Protein 1
Amino acid sequence: MEIEMLKKLNEEFKNRWGPLTEKKINLIIEGIKTPKWDKILKFFNNNDLFDYSYIQSPNHALFIPKVIPNKEIGFYLYIHLEAPIFTCFFKKIHFGISPKNTRYTICSSSSERKFDFTLMEVIHYVKETYLGYRYLSHKLLFENKVDWGVPIGTNEKKDGYFIFEYFFEAFHFTEGDEMVVLE
C-alpha cells in the first residue's frame, strides 16, 4: 500500500522538481533563509552538523557524523520540499568487511549513544514544524529496489533503484558493497 502511494507521489511531483530545485538554489544564492529549515537546524544545536540544503535536489538534508574506530556512524534527515514526506535514519559504515570493503547498515537507533537525540524525538519535532508531513521509514525506502523509471540526477542501473532515490537524492552505494537494513 505505501509503495503504491509513493509511486503515485513520484508521478504527481516529478515534473515540478526541476523548477522547485531551481527556486531553492536561487533563494540560497540570494541569502534568503527558510524559516522551517532553520528551526530544524537549531533543534540539533550541533557544531558537527552538515547542512546539505544547497544540494540541487527538491529537498533539504542534514548529516551529523561521528567517527568510531574502524567505522563511521551518522544521522541523516531528508525533508522533501514539495511532496509532504520526510525520512531520517542512522547509517553505519563499516570498512574492510564486504567484497568491496564496505558494509552500510541503516537503522533507527544508534547503539554507540553518541547522539543527543532519538529518532522518535526528531520525527516528532519535524512533524510539529512541517505540519501535514508524513514520516517514511528507512526500511521502506531501502529494503527493496524498484524500477519506476530513472530518478532525477542518476544514471540508469540494471538492478533498479532504492525508493529513497526517487524522492531525496542518489544514495552513494557501490555495487558489491553490502547493505544491511535494520529496524
Protein 2
Amino acid sequence: MNLDQARALAEEYINGARGPEQDAVPVGVYGFDGGYVAWVRDLEPDDPAKLPETLGGGCLVIDRATGEVVTRPLLDPETVAELWPGRRHR
C-alpha cells in the first residue's frame, strides 16, 4: 500500500459514509513505517496540519502491508503511529 492508495482508501471510507447529499470533507494522511493515519481535516483550519478539536472523534489507521483499516481515537498522527502495534499474526 503506497501513499496514493492509502489516501484514496481513506477518502472513500470517510466520504463514502457521508452520503450523496453531503459535500466531501478533506482528509489528512500521515505516513509511518507500519502504515498511514487518516483523519477528517477542518474545512478552514488556521493550521492545516492541526487536528480538529472535536472531543471523542476518531481516525483511521491503514496497515501498510495488508491494507486493513481500523479506527483509533483521534490523537495527533505521530502518537497514533507510535501506538500502532504493527502486523499481528492471527
Protein 3
Amino acid sequence: MLPVTESTLVVRTDFTDVDAWTRVCRAVAEPPGGDLVRAAFTFVDDPAFSGVSPARALKLVPRTPSHPMVALADSVTMSSPDLPLLVVDLIDDPGGTFRSAPEVLWHVANNLFVAPGFFHDYVRSVDPDGVYRCGGREGQIKVLSAIASLKGVPFDADDYDFSTSPTARRR
C-alpha cells in the first residue's frame, strides 16, 4: 500500500536515473508561480513500487482520504528531457491517464481535488506530443494572473522566463 496522506502522491516507479527523479521532485515542489501557487505533494521513492502500472496504482492508493489522482514517475518520465509524469485518474475514469509536465502538476492536482470530473478535460488539453502544459506561455499567464487577482496581489508576466521551455520559470 502507498502511504496514507492528504496530499497528492507522486510515485517513482522507475529507478534508472536518480538525477531525473531529483529534477522531477524539484519541478513539482517548486512551481513557476512561486507563492501564488501551492499544492501538497508526497513523494514516494521506494523500490517496492518499481514498475507499478496505472492499474496496479489504483489498488495501491489508500481510499481514505480520497485522492482524485496519483502521478507516476515511470520509464517515460525518467528518459524524457521534459520529465512528463503519468497522471492516473482514481475517480472519474479510474485508470485513465495523461501526461503532465511536472512544473504544472500543481494545477492538475488542485483542480482535480476541487472537481474530479475535469479529468477528461485534461486528457483533451494535452499538447500534440501528448503532454499537458497548461496551455504553454499564454495559458500559464492566464492561470497565474487569475490566481493573483483572486489573492489580490500584483502579477507581472515579465517576472517569468519562457525562453528555454514551454513551461514558465520564475526569474
Protein 4
Amino acid sequence: MTEPTEPTGKTAARRTGRGFGRVLVTVYGILAFAALGRSSYELVVKFGEAPVAYTLSTLAAAVYVVATFALAIGTPAWRVTAWITVGIEAVGVVTIGALSLADPGVFGESTVWSGFGQGYGYVPLVLPFVGLWWLWRTSRSTSEERTA
C-alpha cells in the first residue's frame, strides 16, 4: 500500500484518527465514557470510603478523555498531547496494577487501573501500548516529510 502524496510529491503526514486510528479512537472513547461514568458516581456517592482509589479513577477517566480527543484530532500539537496522555496511561496502569496486586487493599477499593485493568477486561493494560505504537507508526511519515 502506498502512502498518500501531496502535489509536491512529498509523503503526506498520516493522521492518528484515520484508518486503524478510527478503531483506536472508538475504543478510547468507550473506555473514557465508562471510566468517566464510574468515577463520577464514585466521587459523588462513595468518595469518603476510598478517596485515593476514586481520585485515581477520576485521573484515569480524564486521561482517557484527553487521549481520545488528541488521537482523534491528530494535529502536531494534539499529537504531543496524545504522546503525553497515552504515556501517563501506560505508566499509571503498570504502576497501579503492580501495587494493587502486591497489596490488594493498598487503595481501599479498586480503580480503573487496579489489577492491570482486570475489571475492564485488561483493555486498560493493552490500550496504551497499542496507542503508543500507533503514534510511533504514524509519526514516521510525519518525520519523513520534515526531512524531505
